[in-house]
Amino acid sequence: MVAFLVIFALMLNLTDCLYIHTVQTFQDLRQQGQKGPAIAFTALVSKNTDVGSKAVVKYDRILSNVGGAYHPSTGTFTAPFKGVYSISCSLMSDPSNSVHLQITKNGSKLSILYSASSTHPHAGQTLQLLLNKGDKIWIQNVNSVVAKLHDHG
Length: 153
Description:
It is elongated and about 50 Å long. It is α+β, with helices and mostly antiparallel strands. It has one helix at residues 2-31; strands at 40-44, 49-51, 61-66, 70-71, 76-78, 83-92, 99-105, 108-115, 122-131, 136-141, 147-149. The longest helix has 30 residues, at 2-31. The chain is 20% helix and 41% strand. The protein has two domains: 1-35; 36-149, Jelly Rolls, CATH 2.60.120.40. A hairpin with a 2-residue loop joins β7 (99-105) and β8. The chain has a five-stranded antiparallel β-sheet, with no helix packed on it.
């Protein structure tokens, strides 16, 4: 029991250090004059959607696009200034197929989400990234076949 408490206390200290480091990163960026307007967007597919092999997901329902950094015609988010961004993606495949979606930055894989066939599994990923002005983020189908995304109302 004592060993558990010691390990737990060490974990709390490590978590505190990570949190303080994250806060410091934000403060450092602000001190370096990295300021800009608010940037946020929320986009989704509003119906069952087919995404071609290796194609970018183009969300058809834009709930918000503060700052205009998300481009619905290309499915790409472009960082308008250097800063820390939170990028989040969720996925539900159509039961007829499995889907692998990739969170991509400037053409390089950051993370892959997977949703199996025959069920309605949900996958999600959130990343906190330091992006430079002009960096591009998009979500794409990495399968060599069409991906059927599921929207359940």
